[in-house]
Amino acid sequence: MLPDALPPPDVCCLGLAKTFGSGPTATEALRPLDLTFAAGQTTALLGPSGCGKSTLLRLVAGLEAPSAGHVTIGGNSPAQVCARAGLAMAFQDASLLPWRTVRGNIALALTLARQPADPALVERLIALVGLDGFGDRRPAELSGGMRQRVAIARCLAAEPRLLLLDEPFGAVDELTRLRLNFDLPRLWEKRGTTTILVTHSVTEAVLLSDRVLVFSPRPASVVADIAVSLPRPRNRDVMATPAFRDLVDQASAALWAGSLAGPLAAE
Amino acid sequence: MIARAGAGPRALPGWVWRWGALLAALALWEAAGQATAGRFLIAGPSEIADYLWTNAGLVGRALAVTLQAATAGFLLGNLAAMALACVALLVPRMAWLISALALLVFCLPLVATGPILRVLYGAGTGPQITLAALAVYYTTYLPLLVGLRAAPASWFDLVHTYGQGRMAELLRIRIHAAVPYLVSGLQIAAPAAFLGAMVGEFTGAERGMGVLTIRAIGALDVPGTWALATVASGVSIMSYLALGALGRRLGTHPRDLLLAPPQATRRPPAARRALGRLGRAVGLIIVVLLLWQGLMEGFGLNPFFAKRPADVWAFLVTVPEAAANRALLLGAFAQTMVLAVPGYLAGLALGAMLAAGVVLVPGLGAAVLPVAIALRSVPIVTTAPLLVLALGRGATGTITIVAVMIFFPTLVACLTGLRQTPGQVMDLFATYAAPRRQRLLLAQVPAMLPAFFAAARMAVPAALLAATTAEWLATGIGMGSLMALTASTSSYAMLWAAIVLLASTAMLAYAGVELLERRVLRVYASEQRQP
Ligand SMILES: Nc1ncnc2c1ncn2[C@@H]1O[C@H](COP(=O)(O)OP(=O)(O)OP(=O)(O)O)[C@@H](O)[C@H]1O
Ligand SMILES: [Mg+2]
């Protein structure tokens, strides 16, 4: 367990840009981007497929080197934060180790974070993502949605202060997804966690976040920055309020307008 | 992916490592040659160059002869492999039998089949071509069969949802999936064909590299032996690289770990599986005996050298000297196994350990892989006499030859396997800044296991080949020597008995490794489709 003294960090991207390859085949995934993710906030990233959302998360996690600009996490570089196990990322495909059981995959995060084994915590996480009774199964025996839930549990295990979630519920069924949408924020509110969440669901973006960023098609630029000041904890009742619907409409409209500004507009 | 490639500032560019290593090796070699001058051990690069310069015509002609036989065997063997793989695919019920027979033929000891083929064909290039073909077909057949099946189940489902059948499966999916496997199989086959042709020439051919090698060994011509081994290695490495370049032009890329869900086949209960295995073993034995007898009778081969199953049975069980025959055979067998088993284990262990060690040093893995690939194609067996010269006729020499023979393929397989760790898994480790050692132990080594076991399986016949060839050419004990002796004294019943014993040993050991492999991979590669 991390000492509670460690507050959640803010994330600053300064002039951050990424181009894959070079010459005529170069792909500009991000053009210089200035962004700040406030400490303790949850920010949802919305944008068309292939616009560079995963790239942005990978840059923040230090998995890619930026072509220009830099990222700081609470004033530190991503590498320094990784070395302290200060962040965790859920990848777009669950990327579990096929030879480890559900339990083993979750416990792996503790090992990697140089924290003592904690079987009770692992059990709690399994229950949290609704996988009771599946602790001894291997990934090959799970459905796609179940694997994603294991990946989420693994992310949470080492109690990171920065969570990078890349479409973590993409393959999870609507009902479980909704339940996770209600439960997970409680967990990270209690601990104080900065969260950056990529999702394709506008509803989910509004439901989970304090702020929604809408990106244009590749190379990504921010076309809308929407503050979400709905009360917490959020539940089904919140989803029925006019304020909620209003925000969802705003985000959808921005997504639509952004796509018209991009290369699709020609059609 | 910076974190994955590990190309940090400390890592030197690959070519520096490669050329540096090459130059260092040459210098060491030359120094060793100088240091041991006069002790009939090592010939350095300068002596080899000198020999080749003075004997350019002789070596050139021999090389042409051997290359011709190797090429013919390569083509025939690979055609046979492709035909076999297609049959196995189209008649799935027979696939196990076809695979088992193919393996059995691959497990026949070249040291014994060589002389028999020589008697069959008489003079000429028949035995060389046949042995070259025998040396390659299995190394193509196996990866090809795997490749033809190496596609996620969902691809086949896709074809089926459009109402298409097996033919469309084959044309639209299987052939494409198989190309990279076929190319890698052919790459291994090219040096193997050359080796097979040389071993074929050991048994009384008139011309060729094998003949020159035998003569050089007999005359204790150290520079000659070294020069011939060097030329053979150079040719093998070149053929390997040429096929690799061809593969790249065809646009085949190193295959990724397949992360497709496994087929939803229900495993039958353990008792039924054991029964099934027993049934197959019995079936295989019956088929082999029938084929053996049938081929001999069908071709009307002379019973003097073409012994039938009943002859071998009589030789080992019913004739008055049967007990003495058995004692001789088993004595030689024990001598061989005592050397082959430690060599096999040492080769596997060293190959896997070096592969794992190499990835711990940034940049080194990328540098070692091509060198290891090149050295893998060295026809180790033809260098056996050199190793025995250097290490003596005792146990160490033979064990080293077996270990070296297995070491390089294992190293290459393991290095490739280590690189096939899924990128996202490595990214996960990177987000925790996990140290290299931890990445290796927790992610890369488990991901390497399928490749390791594939190498361990294929190494079984290779170990026996290396041990018997070393015994035949150099140490004069064990099965290799016994087979060579019986071939020259025409005691063909003993020769056939030796073939039966060695082939069944190889088959059993192969099956044993495969069983272990299944057990391990069920856990460690549960997402990979089992071939
Ligand atoms: N390693 C890479 N090499 C080359 N191009 C890449 C690489 N990774 C991503 N790209 C390109 O960068 C662009 C953005 O990719 P990214 O994965 O960030 O998209 P995304 O917004 O996450 O899309 P999705 O919503 O579909 O996941 C794409 O055009 C993609 O082709
Ligand atoms: Mg993405």
Automatic annotation (TrEMBL), chain A:
Q: Where is the ABC transporter domain?
A: 11-242
Taxonomically, which superkingdom? Bacteria
* GO molecular function list: ATP binding; ATP hydrolysis activity
Under the heading Gene3D superfamilies, the entry gives:
P-loop containing nucleotide triphosphate hydrolases (3.40.50.300)
Q: Give one Pfam hit by family name.
A: ABC_tran
**Entry keywords, A to Z:** ATP-binding, Nucleotide-binding, Transport
InterPro entries tied to this protein: AAA+_ATPase, ABC_transporter-like_ATP-bd, ABC_transporter-like_CS, ABC_transporter_ATP-bind, P-loop_NTPase
Show the PANTHER family listed in the entry: ALIPHATIC SULFONATES IMPORT ATP-BINDING PROTEIN SSUB 2, TAURINE IMPORT ATP-BINDING PROTEIN-RELATED
- Its family? Belongs to the ABC transporter superfamily.
**What name is this protein filed under?**
ABC transporter ATP-binding protein
* Organism in which the protein naturally occurs: Fertoeibacter niger
UniProtKB/TrEMBL annotation, chain B:
List residues of the ABC transmembrane type-1 domain.
Answer: 59-247, 333-512
One biological-process term from Gene Ontology? transmembrane transport
Superkingdom, taxonomy of origin: Bacteria
Query: What is the predominant subcellular site recorded for this chain?
Result: membrane
Q: So where does this one cross the membrane?
A: 61-90, 97-117, 129-148, 175-199, 226-246, 274-292, 367-391, 398-418, 463-487, 493-513
Membrane topology label: Multi-pass membrane protein
* Keyword set, alphabetical order: Cell membrane, Membrane, Transmembrane, Transmembrane helix, Transport
The GO cellular component terms are:
plasma membrane
Q: What does the UniProt entry say about where the protein is found?
A: Cell membrane
Which family, according to the similarity comment?
Belongs to the binding-protein-dependent transport system permease family.
Annotated PANTHER family: ABC TRANSPORTER PERMEASE PROTEIN HI_0355-RELATED (PTHR30151:SF20), ALKANE SULFONATE ABC TRANSPORTER-RELATED, MEMBRANE SUBUNIT (PTHR30151)
Name used for this protein in its record: ABC transporter permease subunit
What organism does the UniProt record list as the source? Fertoeibacter niger
Q: What is the lineage of its organism?
A: Bacteria, Pseudomonadati, Pseudomonadota, Alphaproteobacteria, Rhodobacterales
